[in-house]
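REVIEWER CHECKLIST
Item 1: Sequence provided? yes
Item 2: Single chain? yes
Item 3: Sequence as submitted:
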Amino acid sequence: MLNDKKALLDEINSLKNENSNLRKKLWESEVRYRTLSESVEEFIFIINAEDNVEYVNEYSTRKMGLEREKIINQPRWKLFPPKTYDLQSESLQLVFELGETIKRENLLEINNQERWMETLLIPLKNEKGAVDKVLGVARDITERKNYEILLERQNNILKGMKTILRETLGSVTRNELAQTCLKVCEDITSSEFGFISEINSEKQLTTLAVSQSLLELHNGDEMDIRPMLEKLTLHHAWKQLVKDKRSLIFNKPLVHSQEVPDDHILLKKYMQVPLMSEGEVVGMIGLANKKSGYNLADRRAVEALSATVVESLARKNAEDALKETSEQLKLLIKTSPLAIISLDIEGNVKTWNHAAEQIFGWKEKKCWVNQYPPFLINSKNSFRKISPKSSKPPLLPGT
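Item 4: Structure as written out by the authors:
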């Protein structure tokens, strides 16, 4: 009997020692975990099934701008803005329901600042296998994400430039080219609509391109953007742009100075970028109603595109002017009472107008198959002196 009691006491003492060792190991493990948790530059937190915060590390409290006592045991909805709370809830609900680890990248508002966070959510299960808590580890990846966004924006700018240049080299009209330029600027800034205006020869601002949504509102008719700007508190913005020669952004709700007609879309957010040529403002790109508001990246993107827009429109102007001059010259040659003849360096007839046909009796098509028309045979040596590269002997008609 005594031996049994002694054996039982020994077993109890052994269990006590084992429990003591386990508690010591558990305590040491918790110390190591908390030391690690408190030393890393990452958000570490635990959310329980009641959606209360059970734990946050020191880095989290510092970044949230709150003392730990004001976070622990608080419901999560009290600590975050509605949009951030909803994004977190969606991910946490998946972990509680599926019992699986998930990773998310979200743009969250923390301490009145928008930050890109990469969050790993790990289910913590009880002895029954049910998830009663979620451990979260989140890293601030704003810098990396901003670089990725910047790289994507730069690629989009290059694509936009290629699109504009491709249209410039094509057979599109100047207005079609301007419409393409506007569409590129709208897409790269996620604008609801926009317009491109230029200063004409009379120093007046005229509309060159307008968004399709505005054209549809006006039943496809041409429209002048000036009345819309004049109806707003932005009526001085154009003068300011010409004076300062820099872009302007208006993100606050725009107050209308007087009632705007039903046929005008309201400007809620607005950005205008000058079109510059030789240091002077020659026009502007106006973009409106980006939902999140315009920022520095939007401004820089459109400013980068503006140089391509100006060069493309100038090239199209030059092409149109050259074409018009060429047509006028052809008409002048055709209707001139004087014989107008031109030869290339080989002596081939390139121009032979109606007066030449009447005077010399040779039709233009007949001259095209001969070098040096008959009446110029005596002048061929003079022509060859003027054009020394011509080494072929003149061919007489019929020879």
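Item 5: Key structural point noted by reviewer: The radius of gyration is 39 Å.
Item 6: Recommendation: ____
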